[in-house]
Amino acid sequence: MDFLRSAVAVVLAVYLAIGSGFTAAAVPAIGTVVTTGAFRLNHATVRSNATLFEGAMVETGVAQARMDLTSGARLDLEPDSAARVFGGHLALERGAMRIDETGGSGALHATRFRVEARDLTIQPDASATVGRIVLIGTGRVEVAARTGAFRVFNPGGVLVAKIASGRTLALELRLKPGPTRMTGRLVKQDGHYLLTDETTNVTVEVAGSALTEPVLPKALGQRVEVTGSTRSGATPVSGASQIIEVAQVSPVPPSSESAPPGGAPAGSGGAGDTAPAGAGGSAGGAASKRALSVTMLAVIGGVAAAAVVGGLAATGSLGGSTAPPVSR
Amino acid sequence: MFYSRLFAGISVFGFALALGATLRLAVAECAWRWGSGPGAGWTLTLGNARHFEDLAERQPVSAGSWLRVAVRLNPHDSIAWMALGLAAERDDDMEKAAAYLLEAEKVDRQYLPAWTSANFFFRRVNHLQFWRAASRAAAISYDDMAALIDLADHREPNAIAALERLGESARLERGYLHFLIGRSRWREAAAVAARLCLRGDPGDRELLLNFTDRLIEANEGEAALAAWNGLHPLPGPDRASHGMLVNENFKRQPSGHGFDWRVTVPPPGSVHWEPSKLKLSLADSTPDAFTLLEQRVVLEPGRYRLRFEYRTEGLAEQTGLRWTLLQGGRVEASSPAWAQASKATVAEWYFPVAKAGLYALTWIYSRVPGTTRPEGRAQLSLAGLEMR
Predict the structure, then answer these.
(1) Which residues of B touch A34 (CB under 8 A)?
(2) Is B156 on the interface with A (CB under 8 A)?
């Protein structure tokens, strides 16, 4: 009898010890959140710091919250913002956030960490990407890359923008998919016609009956604006993200502001002219003195995009935007 | 002569202090502007740890250095110890992180250091230290405990086991009950509610009543019954059981909660209760179909008899008043419309129940086609249910 009791006690003890160990392994933390004030975590008020779990809802008040994820991602949720945090991505629901990867070495890139904002997916494209993402109004998302670069995808996973270091882009998902509109230099490569949009820096393959005599000889090598629609299901040539069935090709006069594909876009003033995103207040002073404007509208994959000069994302100013609406 | 010298001495001393303070502020300003390294700390030694905490916040790269200066200046500054611990954790120096956080707990016996330690030891999967810090945080928490409970729940998903480890206080049980209700974890919530019931604190009555309502909404009949009876431990008309109505003689004013009567006032009419009577007034603009009275009851399969006493005044011959039995919003049984009764009349309605579960017995007004709109009163003075 004593033996039986001892055996039961041992089994129970082992079960309790191992059981709690299994429990711990079942619910791993995905990171920490630290702030100087109070914030809300899963709708509960928390001061100073907390542990993050998959799907945690973080809402900041007057102070920003710094999130260090076990994946190596380091993110700042700015004051009066809200986001749902996961191990591999963050869904920004209100306000603004910064991606600050200085604490890790290529971690964001390595783990393919992404930010979701208003149905757009923003993914760091370089190993040391630092930038800022701001939700403005009811539909706009501004993405500023300070260092590194971002790729932006529409809900269908189509690449709609590549944002290079020093650039800010305003993006807005259109409710009704309209025609694609892009501006850039038309080039021929291995028998295919390619165009890299000056605003979004996205290269597409262009095709269609509109791209024949007598338009083609005049347009090739020139700066043109094309409108058309995406040819779904078709595989584009290497280096292009999609095939555009062109409906119209219009020549655009060469502009002194225009830049070659892959370089600084027209109107953006190039990397050096744009206040560094993520620098927050330090960059805000000079940048805010510049007139805020949105230039070079492009529509691709149902997303309207425009380069922002002295972008709000760069200045840190969320209210009182004087920029014209992105969508038309 | 002596006094004038004394006065002069005090004045000089005062001026010297003021000069020293001014110089110190000037140096602090310079250190701030030019971002001097920790070596500048010696000029600001008069308990100005906060300055270095600010620096650490603004310059994350050298946060560790600034915070070490801060804790040297003020070893009782738990905020700095905690920040140092978290910074060490970020730098993967877990041994130092643990030491700093434990030091924060040592110098400050309030909630925040214990909460911070609990989080750190959770992440380090150090069960012993986690439960020690978490139970300490639970004991001294003075506001929202939801985050602490959430953390403990991630470590120990069994609410009762977690409660036992955290300290079993009434506050904690209340917090856990809210937490479990929010996650629709009814069985565990019922177990925590039972503990809270045993404490017998009148302040918990509303919470437990609301909990019973939530269980009923979630169709958790048995758990709701247990929670309700936990609030009514003594035998009497308020206790609920299978196939029995609560407060069947209307001796008590219907509370509108749990298994008691729930009265809905008809939009332009009124309801008046007096001991053993419930009077409802209907106006001609009362909707054609309306639930006047309702009670939730747990029923087993079988045949039931509802015996009730009613009286009407001013209503049509076919009053439109009838009983219905609902489950999940679906009508399972419905009585005929009761005839006008100018005197108190006892009537019976038999109905079958095929499936065990939580039902709603409702007394409704449903205008019989061809009759005039209601303008009158109805009175109920008894409603007893029994299995036949």
Answers:
(1) 86
(2) yes
